[in-house]
Request: fold
Amino acid sequence: MQNQNKRKKILDAATHVFAEKGFHQAKMDDIAQRAQVAKGTLYYNYSSKSKLFAATVTGGMDEIMASISHEMESELPFIEHFRLLVSCTIRLYLHHSQVTRIYSNELSIGIDSETLDEIKKARQRFIEFISDMLLTGQEKGYLKPLNPRLSALALVGIVDSLCNAHLNESNASSSDEIINTVFCILSEGLVNHSK
Amino acid sequence: MQNQNKRKKILDAATHVFAEKGFHQAKMDDIAQRAQVAKGTLYYNYSSKSKLFAATVTGGMDEIMASISHEMESELPFIEHFRLLVSCTIRLYLHHSQVTRIYSNELSIGIDSETLDEIKKARQRFIEFISDMLLTGQEKGYLKPLNPRLSALALVGIVDSLCNAHLNESNASSSDEIINTVFCILSEGLVNHSK
Amino acid sequence: MQNQNKRKKILDAATHVFAEKGFHQAKMDDIAQRAQVAKGTLYYNYSSKSKLFAATVTGGMDEIMASISHEMESELPFIEHFRLLVSCTIRLYLHHSQVTRIYSNELSIGIDSETLDEIKKARQRFIEFISDMLLTGQEKGYLKPLNPRLSALALVGIVDSLCNAHLNESNASSSDEIINTVFCILSEGLVNHSK
Amino acid sequence: MQNQNKRKKILDAATHVFAEKGFHQAKMDDIAQRAQVAKGTLYYNYSSKSKLFAATVTGGMDEIMASISHEMESELPFIEHFRLLVSCTIRLYLHHSQVTRIYSNELSIGIDSETLDEIKKARQRFIEFISDMLLTGQEKGYLKPLNPRLSALALVGIVDSLCNAHLNESNASSSDEIINTVFCILSEGLVNHSK
DNA sequence: CATGAATGAGAATTCATTCAT
DNA sequence: TATGAATGAATTCTCATTCAT
Reply:
């Protein structure tokens, strides 16, 4: 319990520092200091920097998926349900920006391949999670029968791109405008068919 | 002349190494060796690793934009023109994967802010470049009047996400399937309105 | 305790190497080797080469001043007291030649200004220390009422010049001859007033 | 002639840069730029950085000695003559501070021994030059029969110490006060014999 | 005579990791 | 379990010197 408490403190500190500085700029010293433990304690709990990083990403993505699942439990007409998927993905993306910033920016090599795989798997799980939701929509006939994995990648790619811009730039659009735009594009596309 | 030749050799080597390893893992030694020049020559031509990196990204993005512009010169019905935009963006993204891999993965901190700005500006130029094309389509009534910058970010985000998956993963979809899916989503959305 | 011991070992090694080679020629590798610690340990204890240098100079000057103070505690007729000041300054200058060689030769630029200030302050403290002694002599009427700071600078300048010559050159005068000459000049001047 | 002109330009630039930055911080690039010649030209005229440095110091000291000789040619009562020696040494020290700053601060090792010898010889020539003047005064009975070389070192040490303080510090004494103090100390000493 | 692009040996500094306590 | 002093391999950057033109 005391044990778990300490691991939690370390993980929180690591999440913060990795998000703020990126993997290579984050120093184990920074993390130890922020977690208020000695540097040795980091290694007592996680065998290396890479492993700690992987734990950060994996844990964070799991939390996000759990939150989305929770929010999506409500019964709604499909189109509202779909809008909810878009809106809560975006909200959680922004809310967990510390994790998603890691998720989207740190694919680079420089981590041992075993650990890199772990991170890639966390990403894939997220894509599959979205993909499953889209597949359900397709099976019920609400969505076009496009490749669901590519569709999920598209959804995540749009969300990622707009959220990153929102987080990085000062002349940012509001999160509501982002939600509306993403929903509009994903549901009806860019082309004006009335013409 | 000899001079420009050597700068080109360095830039090519740098592009390759940065794309393969990412900024922090790329070593100046590697780049020098690949360019077949002495390490000092790197510094004689580019004042720091960051500056060399920025030159790599900026130059690469410029090339991509020039290629897209060139391909888009043809006269076509709008919808074909739009499909062409999608298709050539994806093709160039994949073809210049060395540059785009840098583009999408290396926003992280760890570069002096002046140089980071240079890189961000190159990205913004690319977004504006796409944004301008979409705006033209809107003005002619072919595209819905959505925020053009967000639309451009969406287009780039989708392309980025699918191309990265294509490049990183073994069970990849073909590039044609990617082009079709992206075009389909962007033009008509995911929702099946016939239902 | 073990800690202080190691810092002492480093400081001793640094003093020796800086004195022998000067700041710019002294290599952190040399100092580490001489102190029998790893190079990282140097940086674990002193944040930079400059800081280590400053610690060397400051510590050395403090030791010298403490020794002079100690030797000057005895009660003597003024002129003997003054001769003692000259003689022990010179003896300590020669004995701590490792430090004083640094003191006199390394004002040059190439150290961050904060650290340079630290060193300059150590020098000023030494000048003030001598200056205070001269002032006391003036107040008691034993010394002429010349600007005490300039007088102290003169004393240190003479000692520095003669000791450096003594240390650098082979055809050196004995230290006793140096003490006599300095005392003679400082007490009565060069001019033969009997003529 | 054109030739000599260029060597002069290089020497002037080198003097300035060495004085401002010290030997190790002065870069051949800086000197070349200041002299408005290519770096290769430096090496065409002086075989190495050390040699250029030595030429700078040697030339500068020669100029100073020539100036002092020139000023000392006048016929005056001895004591006035001696005061003139002090005053013109100090004035030239301050005026050629670019050279004297080098003279006094750059004994450190890090120059090949052959060139270091050249510099030491220039310093010795200056000491001998002063020493000869003092010896003449002794022979005529105007000065006490102290070791003339040590006396010269004392004179130069005092001048050096006070001039350096004057040049480095803001709360500086005026050059007149320096001249008076040095003359007073050297002619009559610090001790108040009336007591 | 003059140039300046190219070189590469050399140095300071960083930081993940270890291990004695 | 927890600590933090110690490590040393690894990396960026500097700059005197060379030499083809």
